[in-house]
């Protein structure tokens, strides 16, 4: 990688792009809505059940000019979801400024394990045990999405719910491989604790990429 490329990446004017695609949001608050997804490479959070482990090594994904990514997004609707990997490993200031300049709403899905950057219309925080969120990101969260893999994750979810604002939407989502076991438990938990809502990976049920 050249020094010029490194400098552009540091400024957020290039990003290690894994993939970009127009689809239906399958999870959380905006389930069922059309959005253009931008998946950036690089993640060291290391969830053992991650379904995009190929995103972890940023070196596998070519540095791409952010302006090119924005121009592609302009062709598809008015909402972009930036995900990963872990997008906050990179500066999000430039890409979100350019997207919003083009009247595109900016959403992010992040573990919160890296410093906050970017200008967001919707900030989805999904904390992971392997690398906890920084304290600074809790106040930014519009949505808290907790992945439920086992019974201990309900307590873990409540610990993080105590740190976000009262306006933050709270979701419990079964980890896909444990959905048959954990979904009934989530249903019971939400009925007993109605501040929470259920999130399902509806795109997988519907076979939507």
Automatic annotation (TrEMBL):
Record-linked Pfam families: Radical_SAM
Which cofactors are required for activity?
S-adenosyl-L-methionine; Mg(2+); [4Fe-4S] cluster
Assigned EC number: 4.3.99.3
This protein's UniProt keywords:
4Fe-4S, Iron, Iron-sulfur, Lyase, Magnesium, Metal-binding, Queuosine biosynthesis, S-adenosyl-L-methionine
- According to the entry, every stretch annotated as the Radical SAM core domain falls at 30-209
Which sites bind substrate? 24-26, 39, 83, 209
Name assigned to this protein = 7-carboxy-7-deazaguanine synthase
């Amino acid at each position: 990688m050249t020094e010029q490329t490194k400098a552009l990446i540091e400024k957020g004017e290039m990003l290690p792009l894994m993939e970009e695609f127009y689809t239906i949001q399958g999870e959380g608050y905006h389930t069922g809505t059309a959005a253009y997804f931008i998946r950036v490479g690089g993640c060291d959070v290391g969830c053992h059940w991650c379904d995009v482990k190929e995103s972890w090594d940023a070196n596998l994904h070519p540095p791409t000019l952010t302006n090119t990514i924005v121009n592609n997004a302009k062709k598809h609707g008015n909402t972009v979801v930036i995900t990963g990997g872990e997008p906050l490993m990179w500066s999000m200031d430039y890409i979100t400024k350019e997207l919003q300049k083009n009247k595109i709403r900016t959403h992010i899905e992040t573990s919160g394990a890296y410093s906050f950057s970017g200008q967001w219309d919707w900030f989805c925080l999904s904390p992971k045990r392997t690398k906890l969120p920084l304290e600074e990101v809790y106040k930014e969260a519009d949505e808290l999405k907790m992945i439920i893999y086992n019974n201990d994750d309900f307590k873990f979810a409540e610990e993080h719910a105590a740190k976000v604002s009262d306006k933050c939407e709270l979701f419990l989502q079964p980890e896909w491989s444990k959905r048959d076991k954990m979904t009934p438990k989530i249903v019971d938990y939400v009925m007993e604790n109605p501040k929470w809502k259920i999130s399902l990976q509806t795109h997988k049920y519907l076979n939507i990429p």
